[in-house]
Amino acid sequence: MAVSLLAREVSDLCLGKPALRSLPLTATVAEALFALKNSDDNFLSVWSCDHTPKTVTGFQGDVDEDECICVGKVSIADVICYLCQDDNLLSPSSALKAPLSVLLPKIPGLVMHVEPSSSLLEVIDLILQGAQNLVVPIKTRLSSFNSRRKQQQKLLVTTNSPTTIHGGREFCWLTQEDIIRFLLSSIGLFSPIPALSIDSLGIISTDIITTDYHSPASSAVAAISRCLADQTSVAVVDGDEGILIGELSPLTLACCDETVAAAITTLSCGDLMAYIDCGGPQRTSSG
Question: Matching InterPro entries, A to Z (predicted)?
């Protein structure tokens, strides 16, 4: 049974997935911020669809010039950490005019393209190698696809607004959570795994990033950025006794707006945690 499960194709996990909304690599940080604040998604994918040789400042990825490729993803948490950098605090308006590429982590392989016919086993191998999001082409009805394509072509003439069509196709993406959720729904096939302890499975990392409750929140920006790339959180502890008090979660920051950057520069880690948990500026969506 387990063998037949692992023989399942990626397309089986894409049923019902919405078309992936995205931004072009040529967009600015301000345009990305506006799109994120008006999106229901915590992350937007970033694509390179420039078919001519071009160097984008701050981005070192290998981009195939013959097709559209997803080169990364961004969230409001990325914007907040970027605005909290010392140079950007001096001139936020200039920082917002920077190319979107400055927000992309310089870690290769976080986002990978896979074909719908790829096996579940191949996808699991990619995740074990560090992939966080897998971009998969999806099939759509021709009439609705053509209608969306015409609307987006008109919109892209004058703006870098999010689009769902790249190279004539639409895509969705699968996350690590999607794969784990699918496997857990069939966990009975992997006996005796259900009877084993979580500790014995070795799936809990002991590499924990911590910050002191009383330390300035600005000192934790680098740690938050690292956790954002690793999809973990910064543990807030009592420096004297090492007692866990709470966490600074990049996913929580992704649900806030950019004004949290001001709180990070003025509050302690403990105060920032309380500020966010007790009604800090939450992102509102109008899209």
Answer: AMPK_gamma/SDS23_families
